[in-house]
TrEMBL record:
Record flagged with keyword Heme: no
Functional note: Required for O(2)-independent ubiquinone (coenzyme Q) biosynthesis. Likely functions as an accessory factor.
Keywords of this entry: Ubiquinone biosynthesis
Family matches, as InterPro entries: SCP2_sterol-bd_dom, SCP2_sterol-bd_dom_sf, UbiT
Protein name stated in the entry: Ubiquinone biosynthesis accessory factor UbiT
Annotated family: Belongs to the UbiT family.
UniProt KW Cytoplasm keyword: no
Gene Ontology biological process terms in this record: ubiquinone biosynthetic process
Pathway(s) the chain acts in: Cofactor biosynthesis; ubiquinone biosynthesis
Coiled-coil stretches: none
Source organism per UniProt: Thauera chlorobenzoica
Length: 177
């Protein structure tokens, strides 16, 4: 597999936006809560029949952008060559990916995954926005892990180690009191 080209670092949002707009965006991000919703079944049936490569490519692109910046590559080394799958239950998505020497890439959907992480769209969004704790979702059976749970713990602990507040400060800038 060819090496991924180095991506230019995007300008920080805080440098692009005037102070008052940056503060309003920061305030909205602080107050935002993911509403309770489920993807309608007819849409999920359609999405499940569509090729899964485009959303998997979007996921691996986002992970590669984060790799080395907010996701420590050395901590994720045990994921190298392991087949991971994210199932978005209410949307009918199955995203198969792996970590290679060149970064995250799509894994063959025909192979059995080493780790499957399943939840609804709403719960994945709440996790990404740090509104919900993975342990809370896991023990309430809204987040499921199947397969190599040691890999699951590695992923969870790596995400828990990310300083999300520092990242948000970099992106939005400091709010004035």
């Amino acid at each position: 597999m060819p090496a991924l080209p180095a991506l230019p670092r995007p300008s920080m949002l805080s440098a692009l936006l005037p102070g008052s707009l940056r503060q309003r965006i920061g305030a909205r991000l602080n107050d935002f809560r993911v509403p309770s919703f489920t993807v309608p079944a007819p849409i999920a049936r359609i999405v499940a029949r569509l090729p899964q490569q485009p959303p998997t490519h979007a996921l691996t692109l986002a992970l590669n952008l984060a790799l080395g910046r907010i996701l420590p590559r050395d901590a994720l080394e045990p994921l190298t060559g392991r087949h991971l799958q994210i199932r978005v239950l209410d949307a009918g998505l199955r995203l198969d990916f792996t970590l290679a020497a060149s970064g995250f890439c799509r894994a063959a959907a025909t192979a059995r995954p080493d780790l499957v992480i399943s939840a609804t769209t709403r719960d994945f969004l709440a996790l990404a926005l740090r509104e919900e704790d993975p342990d809370t979702l896991f023990f309430s059976r809204r987040l499921r892990m199947e397969g190599d749970t040691e890999l699951g713990l590695l992923v969870k602990n790596t995400l828990d180690a990310v300083d999300w507040d520092a990242l948000k400060t970099k992106l939005v800038g400091r709010r004035s009191g």
